[in-house]
Amino acid sequence: MNRISSQKSQGRLAGRNAIALLACRVGADLLNFLLFLAVSRTFGPEGTGEYGYAFALAGLVYYAATLGIDEYGVREYVTLPPERRPALISNLLGAQVCIAIVVMVLLLGYLLITRPSPQMLAIIVSMTIYQLGAAFSATLFVPAMAEQQMMPPAVINLLGRGSAFVVTGVLILAFNWSLYAASAAFAGGGFLMLVLALRSAASFKARLRPNLSGQIVLDGARTLWSFAAVGLLGQLLNRIGVIALSLQVGAAAAGIYTTGLKLVEVACLPLWFIGVAVYPRLCQAFAHREGFQRLSRQALTIGFVLALVLAVAMYLAVPPLLVPVLGERFAGAERVIAAMAAIVLAQGIEIVLGRLMLSANLNVARAIRITVGTIVCVLLTVGLTPLFGINATIAALVCSYLLVDLLYFGNLFGTLRRRSYAPA
Fold first, then answer.
1. pLDDT > 80? residue 216
2. How many Å apart are CA 72 and CA 220, to the nearest integer?
3. How many structural domains is the chain composed of?
4. CA dist 27 to 278, 326, 330, Å?
């Protein structure tokens, strides 16, 4: 009886956390979308392409510097005895500082090769500072997320991201600032998130000084590489189309594609937040074979239905609103945006299966499979985009996600089937 009551309590807590995360993230993404509208209507597809290109590069920095620590850290935090938890955060921060330095060196090399304009460089630098603040904040939020006190991190994320979007939009619309000058507000938002996240971690008695011991950093790199690979390659999987269109076709095509990706991201938010909210429960349930299998079946059923509904909604509802909302310069892009609804279905299934694989300690297998999908996507995108344009870019992303879904499914349920026949 007590076990049933505990499961119901955990279910209610997961539900409340999902609602809190969703509400705050939807609020931040609504502000992000309003800024996106301001950029689109003020600067047209070309300005949108520049904005999307800078965000794509900064996003790669975020996922490389994050190392998947938020996902790994939550899983480890809930299994460690209380006295060892403060040291975990210090160790994770040490590994993160080292990888962030490496990432910045690589970004500098890329910029030296591509030689962006001074205005484009200013946007990239501001957004990179913003994403680094968000990356370190994700590590500092591990104690709160593991303890399922998810409201404070959600609110802090809303404040940091929201301030960047609001200030940038006001500078563009009210003061007629250029995009590169107004984007400096993103750096301020990143600093704000970092300061508030430090206070959050301190409230859980976490050690905030990064442990830069060589052995700790090496052990962290060995442990976290698979989580980091998933985050970075997943971002590359999504953003290689923006980069290819910017370099091979033009800023206008990249702007239309960026617009579609933004809509896909918004459509997939419910799946992502439900996964984050139930993640601690899934990690604990993996110790009990039958319970985890039952939760896995429920997650797949609900996730597939929800992904399908969201994809259909985007296909039917978004194209008629494109010109009235974004402006006349987006006329003719309706068919492209409608086609990108297929990404919602394929990516939505990947979100569900990926969370289940993490819960089942299959992070290395997940990294290998998403590596395969990303390589396929890069080859298809770079090879076909110059020939067939944006349609080839969309098709490459959908096919790559479906390949990853198939590989995830076979690996996850093959593991569960072997576990079912293993001795207790």
1. no
2. 11
3. 1
4. 21, 20, 25
